[in-house]
Hints:
By secondary structure, this protein is α/β, with parallel strands linked by helices. It folds into two domains: about 5-225, Alpha-Beta Barrel (TIM Barrel), CATH 3.20.20.70; about 235-350, no CATH class. The chain is built from 18 helices and ten strands. Strands 1-2-4-5-6-7-8-9 form an eight-stranded parallel beta barrel, surrounded by six helices. Strands 3-10 form a two-stranded antiparallel ribbon. α1 links the parallel β1 (about 5-10) and β2. α1 (about 15-25) runs antiparallel to α11 (about 235-245). It is globular, with a radius of gyration of 21 Å. Bound molecules: flavin mononucleotide (FMN). Flavin mononucleotide binds near residues 9 and 194. Keywords: Flavoprotein, FMN, Oxidoreductase, tRNA processing. GO terms for molecular function: flavin adenine dinucleotide binding; tRNA dihydrouridine synthase activity.
Amino acid sequence: MIPCQQIAAPMVRFSKLPFRHVVRSWGCELVYTPMIMAESFIASSRARDIEFTTNHHDRPVIVQFAAHDAMELSKAAALLAGKVDGVDINCGCPQRWAIKEGVGAALLKKPELVRDMVKMTRESSGLPVSIKIRTDPDLKETLRLTRLAEEVGVSFITLHGRTALSKPSDPVDFDAIRLVKEHLRVPLVANGDVKQLQDVYDIFNSTGADGAMAARGLLVNPAMFSGYDQTPTECVNDYVYSALQLGTRFEQIFHKTLEWMLCEVLNKSDRIHLNGCVSVSGVSHSLMQSVSLPCFRCPPSLLSLLPCASHSLFSPISPFLDSFLLVEEGWERKSKAERSPAGAAVLEGARV
Ligand SMILES: Cc1cc2nc3c(=O)[nH]c(=O)nc-3n(C[C@H](O)[C@H](O)[C@H](O)COP(=O)(O)O)c2cc1C
């Protein structure tokens, strides 16, 4: 199974259902959910509803879990058997809280635990299991980890070519990726600094990798895998519409995603204006002016989604169906720009 060649990385907050839909319709062949904590996923139905929504169009999709215990992980994965196309184990999150909890990059130092996680998760869920790792400064450690995972049937391995101590801006170690690829029997996905379509081909040539995964490159331009140099307006429109239709949180996700997508498209004053918006209608107005975004026109690629929207697997009614519009705030929280008479007219129009 897998890997596809053009892959959208797991991204906390960002790689939720609406974003997954958009990158998929703009050239991604495989998309990950954000990292989900296995412990809370098995403990609480509310956590399941919040962390994982999907619909019939959301395939192929890989769910990524963070866990410090093989039993916990295998239970979480079993809950999604038949609903996703694979389970990925996060062995790369370098944040201090993650290391302290024994998840993410802490697992790079526990290859036997990773081996047990892969084995038990495969058995409990019947799903393909992959691991997402970072390079170790001592590559022998990386090779030992990958060998143990291979012994118990890992389906493929994603290697981010930076160590757990690297900064996100540090260069990617493509030599290390090539070396690991040469030792692997299962497919390897290379991750790090894929910012345009050409990077995919360059990475294949320089490392022999079977797939290329992008994170920040797709945040900046979700149409990158289709060969676009900058986010096209249609793609912005697709995201706005997807978010409205499928549901998302305003401040942490919708607004921040648009900031990323438009960071190379907007001029400074348009960026300041967008950053000041605190409501959906404010953002809509701002984008209509700055990138000539049509007023929430339903893109053809989304028409077929309308009847199914997003759904939670665990509750009969998804709490997300309404959450997007619930975050529309009162006038007192609107930005200066939105309070201007011209802005007010558009806002009122948008509400009708
Ligand atoms: C906003 C953001 C959220 C991320 N969340 C996750 C995550 O949930 N799981 C994970 O394995 N990596 C996560 N990462 C790391 C990326 O998946 C990727 O490994 C890293 O950004 C390097 O790829 P890039 O150079 O294409 O950005 C995240 C990165 C960013 C920028």
